[in-house]
Specification:
Elements lengths: L2 H12 L4 E4 L3 E2 L6 E2 L3 E5 L2 E4 H8 L16 E3 H8 L3 H9 L6 E2 L6 E4 L4 H20 L2
Antiparallel strand pairs: 1-4, 2-3, 4-5, 6-8, 7-8
Length: about 140
């Protein structure tokens, strides 16, 4: 654990609800927002931008998404787009059609998809990717 992280953890003992600290151009792990002229927040869920902290406080997003580094319980729209080659306009359309349920972070408008709320869509997506990979590999 880096020295800064140890110091943040130590400070958390005296401020268990969390605290703001200078962002110094850090990037929020969840939404990807680079914070230069605003503070970031640190609590038991880790470091995040103030938009994501607001969404957590308002129960728009659950705390566990901040520790879900391997996307087993959630996925962001940008990761969904990048990983599965789905255009961002298509993702927004699927949300409008009710095929995907998004949790939207106020302020930066990042869309978070919880796996438990989108199991059918995500399962079908993973299945189609596996079938595509099998088809591509059978031609080799």
């Amino acid at each position: 654990m880096a020295l800064d992280e140890k110091q943040r953890e130590e400070r958390l003992k005296s401020e268990p609800m969390g605290y703001a600290f200078p962002a110094e151009r850090r990037t929020c792990h969840l939404c990807g927002q680079t914070c230069s002229d605003q503070d970031m927040w640190y609590d038991k869920w880790g470091m995040k931008c103030l938009d994501c902290q607001y969404a957590l406080n308002k129960k728009i997003i659950p705390g566990y998404v901040f520790k879900d580094y391997d996307n087993k319980q959630h996925i962001t729209a940008s990761t969904l787009s990048w990983r599965f080659k789905i255009h961002s306009a298509t993702i927004r359309k699927l949300v409008r059609q009710g095929k995907l349920k998004a949790r939207i972070i106020p302020g930066n408008r990042t869309m978070i998809f919880l796996v438990k709320e989108n199991q059918e869509f995500l399962s079908n997506l993973l299945l189609s990717v596996k079938q595509y990979n099998l088809t591509q590999n059978s031609h080799l």
